[in-house]
Amino acid sequence: MSYQSEIEKRRTFAIISHPDAGKTTITEKVLLFGNALQIAGTIKGKKSGQHAKSDWMEMEKERGISVTTSVMQFPYKDHLVNLLDTPGHEDFSEDTYRTLTAVDSCLMVIDAAKGVEARTIKLMEVTRLRDTPIITFINKLDRDTRDPIDLLDEVEDILKIKCAPITWPIGMGKEFKGVYHLLRDETILYKSGQGHTIQAARSIKGLHNPDLDAAIGVYAEELRDMLELVRGASHEYDHEAFLAGELTPVFFGTALGNFGVDHMLDGLIKWAPKPQGREHDLGRVDSSDKSFSGFVFKIQANMDPKHRDRIAFCRVVSGKYEKGMKMHHSRIGKDVRVADAVTFFAGDRSLLIDAYAGDIIGLHNHGSIKIGDTFTSGEKYRFTGIPNFAPELFKRIRLRDPLKQKQLQKGLIQLSEEGAVQVFRPLQNNDLIVGAVGVLQFDVVVARLKAEYNVDAIYEGVAVATARWVYCDDARKLDEFRRKAEVNLALDGGDNLAYIAPTMVNLSLAQERHPDIEFKTTREH
Ligand code: G4P
């Protein structure tokens, strides 16, 4: 197969949703279509007995949440789909944000009884940063739901994206009959209790087909009336608007009943963009460029206790990875030969032979790779746009055994390079302040410090309300600021200067007093 057709057939996406909307269930069904999943239900810690991986994964299991981001690849029809799982729990939003920089489209899942929920709003804001195309799946039609027209109105009003229904639901809850496919002009009938299989669903062509009346009775007339209304009130699918992130095709179904998920997948392979290029410091590279390039968006430690190591997740932006190839590690300016990159398969991993633009490869990391790092095989450049977010929660971390200060510092800096947490070292004292976006990160850090660095650490309260990275082009002004504000300045894990403010009022005063200094809530790697 030619290089170009390898690229054309790939789709790389992630699911965004509020917890409980059905992301895990949809992932399971999607993998069922791809035949990738051997044992249904091994994706989320809470359901799997056989995937006890490390102490900290034990913890996610106990809490019934998914902390890790995994990558799944599966064939669907004549395409190859990469699904990047994003942590469902709001505490791990930073990881989620960075994962969203590595995809070309997103599937937004909405619970039909609940509508647009808080976390979906936040995640949509993030997809807007790159105008990522969004496909929508409205889930749980086998339950009593809200009026579908209301739901679309809500998506349009709150998320500011136009909706183009591709399927339309018939009935709901116990009376859920199926969906009408507006583009195919056919009704696909739902049968309950078939969620574990790929259904050979019956479909009826045409809205005025007497078979339809025979199959769904009074619902047929209702559907015909409803569709007139829907066609008048909603948008038609517009490909350009979809690619610009301005319009979303909407599908209805039930993930649990495995109904509608295939319609959505058909839409994904047909409309979602093939692997896209990315901006770098010297310009832009397109996925059609045959020389290898990729960037690291996540680092994860001890994914498997059998291999106590850290894996850097690298999105291939252009070209092809081949076992044993040489690539340039741009930040450290060295060439490295990579023979042992891994691929991921619903939690398991295997040695990778080759990979193309759009794929995610796992690089073994012995400490030299950081989030945001670029690897290239041709021209040397660095990708931009992989953010760190200013933490909102802070604690001082202290050792039970004061002799292990070195290990503590090393552990924290490594965990911060992974993006598991952020660490701040004030200029004026020897405190170590841990900053997190979500409260659960604190527990993960202490558990991992103990398991991986053999340090026993505890937290204390600290008077820090927020942090900002500070920048100024004028070295003299920055120096003056450094002197005047030293009590509130700290270095983060990567030695970047940050202002740590005891209160929000203090921050605004500092901003007023130092108008030449930029106080930023994100920092690019
Ligand atoms: P999440 O990853 O987005 O958090 O959601 P998840 O798939 O875990 O789904 C949350 C709950 O909603 C689960 O039930 C799941 O079975 C249920 N669910 C998902 N899709 C559908 C659907 O189409 N219809 C109905 N009726 N339920 C659906 P749970 O009882 O919380 O979990 P579990 O005990 O089944 O694991």
Automatic annotation (TrEMBL):
Q: Which residues form the signal peptide?
A: none
GO BP term, example: regulation of translational termination
A single GO molecular function term of this UniProt record: guanosine tetraphosphate binding
Identify the Pfam families for this entry.
EF-G_D2 (PF22042), GTP_EFTU (PF00009), RF3_C (PF16658)
Q: Where along the chain is GTP bound?
A: 17-24, 85-89, 139-142
The subcellular localization recorded is:
Cytoplasm
Q: In this entry, which stretches build a coiled coil?
A: none
Q: Where is the Tr-type G domain?
A: 8-276
Does Nucleotide-binding appear among the keywords? yes
- Keywords of this entry: Cytoplasm, GTP-binding, Nucleotide-binding, Protein biosynthesis
Example GO CC term: the record gives: cytosol
State the superkingdom: Bacteria
Q: Extract the PANTHER family matched here.
A: PEPTIDE CHAIN RELEASE FACTOR RF3
Q: What does this protein do?
A: Increases the formation of ribosomal termination complexes and stimulates activities of RF-1 and RF-2. It binds guanine nucleotides and has strong preference for UGA stop codons. It may interact directly with the ribosome. The stimulation of RF-1 and RF-2 is significantly reduced by GTP and GDP, but not by GMP.
Query: Could you tell me which NCBIfam families the record lists for this protein?
Result: prfC (TIGR00503), PRK00741.1 (NF001964), small_GTP (TIGR00231)
What family is this?
Answer: Belongs to the TRAFAC class translation factor GTPase superfamily. Classic translation factor GTPase family. PrfC subfamily.
Provide the protein name.
Peptide chain release factor 3
